[in-house]
Design brief:
single chain, alpha/beta, 24% strand, elongated
């Protein structure tokens, strides 16, 4: 897999480092996905998360009952209404997860250089010498010398709750392992991960399949986008085929850091994000500020990691334990947003644009040509924003693919549809789906307004968008604005300069 990275724009003035960060209407072009859970599910906290910059709310179905998540979703809807902030919903399915069960929930102390048996007999009680697991085929999948990870690192980000094992013997259905480091496992559930071994479990559980079938019957929800989470060597090996089928990619660095040697993870991140960028599909990076689960500030390494993810070309940063059960969910979103914004200021957008154009090659499709032309025009005239009219969101996503330095305001124009019983407008779904794309800020147009003024008294969608931009300070007098829209059967890119 080719490794390509974006260089920092030169020169960076040392004096600018000491300047305070300036607040703006769009705090960062990079989007933030926040996982909602015990510490972040009240209307008040969700509202503050939205205000701080969360644009996608993630629901992790690897834990918790459906009723619990439904209550959280209801609270999210209330928060969206009160803050008037659009927010998309991401549902993370359970998938093929190996787990260790500790029914008594008593802490289990594992000592280095001792032996422990992994057994598929879940009726047995977990002890320092025996750990019940949820998979009967482990003994057939592993061999002597294989490395096995067990712990809560993937939940908590803390290495002190994790243990590494080495397979020493396979005895029937049981696997005997040598404990490599001392650790205390606490709680009811731990993750089990075998390095670079394919585990024959279905990617979609019965529960997941029920959800997908259910979604496909719910009208517009059949348009639900599917993101592939890459978390092991198998995902890396088949990355190109997965990228072709998926609507976006999530780089699950917690799992990848266990399956890959630590020194290889950054290479895969850079190569995978680059490929996503070139085909215009969102790339989401996880596990960036684990320490903020318990601390008010990230470590210096974590802050640098966030910035490097942005410079690599990530569309979004996904926060897990930091917002799910962390002590400072709102502060975490705010700080990550500020780091993203600073990195965006020095990102070499010109280099990215040239690479994207070269990758597409010639002849370009009509839409690719319009999108790249809109970005080129906006950069040339130093436009403050690009306004794109769209109904599906595709045109706006194509513009965002070329990484303009200015925000892209995606005006989603509702479409009228009927099921022969009643007429309905679509558009809200498409608008929310843009919320995970870097630099794209969707808004739903009022269907009563035409796209352009046809007379002096008409309140056009474009005029409403410009007025909104001026009211929020995004657009100022004498600014240039690039507008991309369809006129009849043609797509048009035009440049507008605002008067006083």
């Amino acid at each position: 897999m080719q490794s390509t990275h974006l260089l920092i724009e030169e020169p960076v003035r040392m004096a600018s480092i000491l300047e305070p960060s300036k607040p703006s209407f769009f705090p960062a072009m990079t989007k933030i996905v926040g996982t909602l859970g015990p510490k972040s599910r009240s209307v008040e906290i969700i509202s503050r998360c939205l205000e701080a910059g969360m644009s996608v709310a993630r629901f992790d179905f690897s834990w918790g009952e459906t009723e619990f998540h439904q209550e959280t979703l209801n609270n999210l809807k209330v928060a969206i209404k009160s803050t008037k902030k659009l927010c998309a919903v991401m549902l993370d399915t359970v998938g093929p997860e190996l787990q260790v069960f500790n029914k008594t929930e008593h802490p289990i102390s594992l000592k280095a250089d001792s032996l422990v048996v992994l057994t598929p007999d879940q009726n047995k009680e977990a002890t320092s010498n025996l750990l019940p697991i949820n998979f009967g085929g482990l003994s057939k999948a592993v061999k002597t010398g294989d490395a096995i990870f067990i712990g809560q690192y993937l939940f908590t980000g803390s290495e002190t709750t994790s243990v590494w094992l080495e397979v020493t013997e396979v005895s029937g259905d049981d696997v005997v392992c040598l404990i490599k480091n001392s650790a205390t496992l606490s709680g009811q559930l731990y993750t089990l991960h075998v390095s670079q071994i394919r585990i024959d479990l279905p990617t979609l559980t019965d529960k997941d399949k029920e959800a997908r079938n259910y979604l496909s019957k719910l009208g517009d929800l059949n348009q639900t986008q599917i993101f592939a989470k890459i978390e092991n060597v198998e995902g890396l090996t088949h990355f190109d085929e997965i990228l072709q089928e998926a609507d976006g990619i999530i780089l699950s660095r917690g799992n990848l850091g266990i399956d890959l040697p630590p020194e290889k993870v950054f290479l895969f991140q850079k190569a995978a994000v680059y490929k996503c960028n070139m085909v215009g599909k969102p790339a989401v990076v996880t596990r960036v500020v684990d320490s903020m689960t318990d601390n008010l500030r990230p470590t210096r390494a974590e802050a640098t990691d966030v910035a490097n993810a942005v410079l690599d070309g990530s569309d979004a940063i996904l926060l897990g334990a930091e917002t799910l059960r962390g002590l400072y969910p709102v502060e975490t979103i705010s700080i990550v947003g500020k780091i993203c914004a600073e990195a965006e200021k020095v990102s070499n957008q010109d280099l990215h644009f040239k690479k994207a154009v070269k990758y597409v090659g010639e002849p370009m499709t009509h839409l690719e040509s319009i999108a790249s032309s809109a970005v080129r025009a906006a950069i040339t005239v130093k436009a403050s924003v690009i306004i794109c009219f769209t109904s599906s969101g595709r045109a706006a996503r194509l513009i965002a693919k070329y990484r303009p330095t200015m925000p892209v305001i995606s005006i989603v124009v509702p479409r009228l549809k009927t099921n022969q019983l009643r007429w309905t407008f679509t558009g809200a779904f498409e608008a929310r789906q843009c919320l995970i794309v870097r630099g794209l800020f969707p808004t739903l147009a009022d269907p009563r307004h035409p796209a352009e003024s046809t007379g002096g008294t008409n309140e056009s969608i474009l005029k409403v968008a410009l007025d909104h931009g001026k009211a929020t300070g995004v657009i100022k007098p004498h600014d240039h604005i690039v507008v991309c829209q369809r006129v009849g059967n043609a797509s048009v890119v035009k440049i507008i300069q605002l008067e006083d």
